[in-house]
Amino acid sequence: MPIAARAKTPTRVLAAAALGLIAVLSGCDATSNPIVSDSDSETRQVTVVGNGEVQGTPDTLTITAAMEVTGPDAAAALNQTSQLQRAVIDGLVDDAGVDRKDINTSQVSVQPQYAGSDGTNIAGYRASNTVDIKVRELNNAARVFGIIASTGGNATRINNVTLGIEDDSQLVREARARAFNDAKSRAEQYALLAELDLGKVISISEVPSSSPPTPYPSTRGGAAEMAAVPIEPGQQTVGFNVTVVYELT
Question: What Gene3D superfamilies does this protein's entry cite (predicted)?
Fold first, then answer.
């Protein structure tokens, strides 16, 4: 009889353990059900790209002008270019009405010039003094060019001429609006084709697509050549590409 009593004890333990395991598994199912439900309810989306562009007329001109001289020694060449450039700046301020704050030095350089069959003998030094000049009145450009050329003479180098728009903030706003409206129109069409409703905007990203300022080829030489340079502002484009993600309901 004592042996039979000992045989019943493991049965009770196993039964209790089984009930405990069932309770634990039931608890795990109860807490995991909401996670599974959330992952099953993904938001339907549509991604579209819109483009918007507007054009404006340039109203400023930036001239990159250098005085370049070759001399027997570095100091002489540098001094000569400095004197010429100083005279150009004074002439632009006094005679062309250019604001001194619109003239800034962008480069000063002195380089040895080599000669001889082996190219190791220094024959002289080439010095250059470069300034950027912003012209805010395009009808004053011809006078500015004339002063630069007549003052600098054959040492004058026009390295770059660029047209730009001083304040393009209104053009930027219009281009953004056009790009977004274009994207929205595309999204509405896709929603209609899919027999769904267009929901809220989830994200917006943009990439500027504006055309760069208009450059003109560089010019070297004296006043006669400079006077022949025509300036036509033309048009510049301000644009944006936007990527918009919409919810579909």
Answer: Protein of unknown function (DUF541), domain 1, Protein of unknown function (DUF541), domain 2
